Fold:
Amino acid sequence: MKNASFQTLLDDLKISFKFALKNVISYVLAIIGVFIVAGLLLIIVAAAVFIPLLLLMGFENMVLWFESFALMGSAQGATIALGIFLFALPFVTPFFVASGALFGMSREIVESEGTTAEGVFQWFKRKFFSLAGGGIVMFLIIAGPVFLISFGAVAIFGDQVLNLAFVSSGSASILSPILVGLGVIWFVLSSGSLAMLFPAIIDGHSVVEATKRSFRMTVDYFDRVIGFWIAFILLLVVLVTPMIVAIFAFPPSSGIGIAAMGIYAIPMGIFLAFVGLPALSIGLTRVYMILSADDEDLSPDDEEGESGSGPSFLGGL
Amino acid sequence: MEVIEDKNLIKLLMEPTRAKIVFDYLVKDAMTVKQLSEVTGKNPGTILHHIQKLKEVGIVFEERTEQTQTGIVQRYYRATAREYRMGISEMVQATGEDARKRLKSIIESLSVYGIDVPESQIEEAVELMTAMIGRENEISSRNLIVDEDSYDELPSSIRGDASRIMRRFALEEDSQYRELRENWHAFLSLARSRNKIGARNE
Structure:
């Protein structure tokens, strides 16, 4: 049963959370461990970026150089946006790998009902470059067009358009909701289309093949893939909404407001990190495995043989 | 039967867990990661990594997928052939001294049958064995079946016995193999008679 119905979506969600809760200890340990490793990698990336800059420019010049970005202000919004876009890529990559490695654990659960916390490091190590590549592809496909459109708008209308688009001021109060709406639709569809990327990489496909496979599966089984993805986003919205309501009901400046936020936000954050994220990866992996089953005729021709023999070094001697 | 001649593939299969997965289990039947994990005593993650490696090189394929009541999605993996043999010369090339050491150990172990090959003749014995096994693999890898459909319908035990009989028959028909086998047997006979004379003199 590859296509979705409301019941299928409910089952997908139920099974995902059931497995995530069943393996919660492994996931807690794995997430803490793998994100510490990702953090350490980030420090290494930062050192690789900043130490040469420091040596080339000197500390004071480097500080001035970074300050010059702030001075550019909105007048050169596009330049800053491009800078952030390209600069952010190496820094976010270790976190993509860490998240991708969780899909490896999920694969173990979906396929054999069991995993171990240390398993995540095996996936982290074995699939590092594929997952990093997948993360970069995901980042470029989801965020790339947003930046391209921004540049196009800047080229046509000037830098001021970015202020109108991203900052709700003046006439932007009319423009922003449309852009925000389009942005949300773009995010849901583009990220949804790439939802099968990490499961496909974990399944042994190259980054290019996994990307193609993810898009193809989304087209062929749009209801199942996007349905599960939207269901998860809605779940996230439902969980976050009380916090937004609380912000308006009890302004954070008041003590009660901060306490109310903390009481709800901290357990919710923990739940999302250690149950929600694993459940998402389990759900997507499961959907991938169901959809990719019997995709191709993989059976080779039967060959001559006999049963019950091992690798014969000595032939029939 | 498939003769594995790719050096990298041979190296890959020299890993004991992978060898066990393929040669002890997946040549016989399709199994899931969970089942393999249970029979080998390794954790599912390790098995999954090995399966993926084996899939990449084409030794293993996904036969079918089944969903269970609990919600897991089991994939059944199977070896692409029912029997494999390592190409002897490629194995020597791939594993270097390891394969020769193994052959030497086999020859030395013949002493339990009263065939004590002297150290000076071990190399000669290794050469004779290598040539004979190489030829045997070459002949055994030929497809002798003329009616594939009927063959597929045979029970696996009958299929195995029939296959063995026909491979032996094909070997006996090959003059080059017969010559190599005779040389090897002559070598063994000589070694055994030398041992008997030595034992009588003592």
